[in-house]
Design a protein that fits this description.
Butyryl-CoA Dehydrogenase, subunit A, domain 2, alpha+beta, binds flavin-adenine dinucleotide, Butyryl-Coa Dehydrogenase, subunit A, domain 1, about 400 residues, four-stranded antiparallel sheet
């Protein structure tokens, strides 16, 4: 790689590399081979200099420009790549550590995420704390040079294959709910961590229940500050919405089965493309897809200039969810309903059945609408009675009952 390489040359090099290295076939997520293929591809990407393109060299990145990263992402979106298993680590946990972690955490954790040797998950949701995640009950108590963590998380994507997790825990129940939380890095292989897969309607265990039973976590595993975990969580949630908005890990993207290109190809092969109603539906879909792409480009440009996209991330997330839902419905229609009647083991049927998930994961549509109403439109805040009281006094919690 020469220092004089222009963005255009970089793009062509990326295009060539992807053409010769993108796996011809990707095993199903249910197949244990998937993980081997995914890790191998990620390592090859790292060795070729296409991982962490605009991240600091000191922590394993390439130290190149954000525009070059964008060029690579555009080229990569023309392929179906086995990268979804790294999305939470690279899209959410790594940027959070780069923003608020210590140098020691950056040195220890970023590079193995980039080369695929370590996989991460994010542990926020609990059975009684999803949308209102600040009501979570998982406790961490200091004992000598460790925290002792006890509690249960749920819907944890990828926990079954993760080496590390970023977990939000309650460290101080005597202050209002947002002020007594702490973000920790937890070793998912540590004694006392139990992962139970949850199978969804696609037939795949995309997420898990995770139980913590006297799990020891070192004091230096705090990301951000003790009792200021809500601040760290907000950093992570912003990255989560941006990762979802950019289509990471979905069957959308510019060439997936639920993209305009994928749907048009399906309509052509089923012979339905000649029908005006199918053409109209495809045009409507194309307009929404293009509008979202332009909106995302604008947000990405702002992020590259260091401007916080704020609540606009919620608009992108909402629209991305709507686009995927429409793509799912269209795929079923264009396929003459065979998708709906088909076996969930069929890849397209599984993609279609997974489309409602985006309206829930990463914050439900209703929560995104509230954020947009309050922070973008300036409408009155949703009334909340429990944001000023010490968490321990909250009557509906076990802490409150204690
Ligand atoms: C595919 C997928 C992957 C996920 N991965 C992870 C993960 O890796 N880590 C993790 O921690 N979590 C994960 N989640 C969990 C996700 O963040 C929660 O499901 C989500 O925040 C909603 O919480 P809940 O399921 O408890 O629903 P609830 O919060 O109980 O909501 C139930 C319903 O009530 C509505 N509602 C709740 N509060 C309000 C309100 N104030 N105003 C209006 N409507 C409201 C909701 O919109 C929803 O329709 C994942 C979820 C999915 C679907």
């Amino acid at each position: 790689m020469s220092e004089q390489e222009t963005i255009h040359q970089f793009r062509l090099r990326a295009r060539d590399w992807l053409a010769s290295h993108a796996p011809a076939t990707i095993p199903s997520r249910k197949d244990p081979e998937y993980l081997r293929v995914a890790r191998e591809f990620r390592r090859a990407m790292f060795e070729a200099g296409f991982a962490g393109i605009d991240w600091p060299v000191a922590f394993g990145g390439q130290g190149r420009t954000a525009a070059e990263r964008r060029a690579f992402e555009e080229e990569a979106s023309n392929h179906i790549l086995p990268l979804v298993v790294f999305d939470i680590g690279l899209g959410m946990c790594a940027p959070t550590i780069l923003s608020v972690g210590t140098d020691e955490q950056k040195r220890r954790f970023i590079r193995p995420m980039l080369d695929g040797s370590e996989i991460w998950c994010q542990l926020f949701s609990e059975p009684a704390a999803g949308s209102d995640v600040a009501s979570l009950l998982t406790r961490a108590v200091v004992d000598g040079d460790h925290f002792i963590v006890n509690g249960q998380k749920v819907w944890t994507t990828g926990a079954e294959v993760s080496d590390w997790g970023m977990i939000l825990v309650r460290t101080n129940p005597d202050v209002p709910k947002h002020r007594g939380l702490t973000m920790l890095v937890v070793d998912m292989q540590a004694p006392g961590v139990t992962v139970q897969p949850l199978v969804d309607m696609t037939g795949v265990a995309h997420f898990n229940e995770v139980f913590f039973d006297d799990v020891h976590v070192p004091l230096d595993a705090v990301v951000g500050e003790v009792d200021r975990g809500w601040d760290t969580a907000r950093v992570l949630l912003t990255h989560e919405r941006l990762a979802v908005t950019s289509g990471g890990g979905t069957a959308g993207g510019s060439s997936g089965p639920l993209s305009f290109a994928g749907l048009k190809a399906a309509a052509e092969s089923s012979g339905i493309l000649a029908e005006p109603s199918a053409q109209q539906a495809l045009v409507d879909f194309y307009l929404l897809e293009q509008s979202l792409r332009l909106f995302n480009d604008r947000i990405t440009r702002d992020v590259l200039r260091g401007v916080d996209p704020g609540a606009r991330g919620s608009v992108g997330k909402l629209l991305q969810g709507e686009l995927l839902l429409r793509g799912g419905v269209l795929a079923a229609e264009l396929d003459n309903g065979d998708v709906v009647a088909g076996d969930a083991a069929d890849e397209l049927a599984a993609d279609v059945l997974f489309t409602p998930a985006l309206a829930i994961g990463g914050g439900t549509n209703e929560i995104q609408l509230s954020i947009i109403a309050e922070r973008l439109l300036g409408l009155p805040r949703e009334p909340a009675s429990d944001t000023k009281l010490p968490f321990r006094t909250k009557p509906t919690t076990k802490e409150g009952a204690a």
